Amino acid sequence: MMLPGTSRNATASAPGPFTLLGIPGLESLQAWLSIPFCSMYFMALLGNLSLLLMVKTEPSLHEPMYLFLCMLSLTDLVLSSSTLPKLLAIFWFGRQPINFSACLAQMFFIHSFTAMESGFFLAMAYDRYVAICNPLRHATVLTNAVVAKIGLAVVVRGVVLFFPHPFLVGRLPFCKSKVIAHSYCEFMALVKLACADTAASRGYSLTLAFLIGGFDVCFISLSYALILRTVCRLPSKEAGLKALGTCSSHICVILVFYSTAVFSFLTHRFGHNVPHAVHIFIANIYLVVPPTLNPIIYGVRTKKIRDRVLQALLCRKR
Q1: What is the DSSP secondary structure assignment for residue 142, as one 8-state letter?
Q2: CB 162 within 8 A of CB 111
Q3: Which of 24, 46, 305, 306 is buried most, with the most CB atoms less than 10 Å from its CB?
Q4: DSSP state at residue 131
């Protein structure tokens, strides 16, 4: 079947499956690498599903911070499940082939949900800013309706801006190798295989990633800078340390996500001397580590959720 916007020549030249290599250069270690990746995937599933169930069943957690956290958890579940099962199949069973349509779908989910993850980090930073800097207005500013609109805006941004990616790739002729030197279908890795001029497509994708990441990072940094200024002015040192402790853990997760994303972004453009195995390994880290850490950092270190977990554990012991 011909994809919309796909020329007959492009379709005819790339109807068959592509081959994902996993992590090229580390083939001898892939069986061992599967252990931490599988463990992190299991923790991501368990942590995010538990968090969603806890917030759903506990009315006291139906607040903006926890609603945004649920949106982040759903994003993490989709993002990690879009890549990790295939990666583990490559590691364990050598199932490297992937259908072209499935490859395009995986590429879309990875890029769009990565943008959503970034957007929800920004939404949660804004929530913390309002809660700490304008606590009396928090309930009136971030109503459930506003939270829903922010969540919808983040989802729409991720879908609309990256919707062209599958069509841009689907139009390309692949008359050379169909071996993708990556562990998942990534836009830049795919366009490199095309036997056509892809400068416009690559420029579009890189510009989009730069603008989305730059916009979100700037406003996340601004939010936490204003929070830090407010915390330093608090008369109570205990309250200041509590707020600072919460924000510092959030910042650690954000730094892991953006530092690995920026490394991957810059490697595509300038990192010709970076070993390919290092690039692919880091590219996988930024898709699996944040979904694993988010329920722990945002969840367990949040007092209401921590108290709810302890209460559930005590009830089981009785």
Answers
A1: S
A2: yes
A3: 305
A4: H
pTM for the full model? Answer: 0.87
What values do phi and psi take at 278, rounded to 5? -65, -45
Percent of the chain that is helix, strand, coil (3-state, to 5): 80, 0, 20
Report d(CA 100, CA 106) in Å as an integer: 10
Chain position carrying tokens 């002015």: 233
Please compute, for residue 292, the number of CA atoms within 13 A of its CA located in the half-sphere on the CB side.
16
Are 290 and 257 in contact, with CB atoms under 8 Å apart? yes
Nearest residue to 120 (alpha-carbon basis) of 169, 66, 54: 66
pLDDT in tens, 190-217: 888 888 888 888 888 888 988 998 999 9
Give the CA-trace dihedral at 290, 296, 298, 303, to 10 degrees. Answer: 180
3-class SS string, 7-33 = CHHHHHHCCCCEEECCCCCCHHHHHHH
Gap between the Cα atoms of 98 and 70, Å rounded: 31
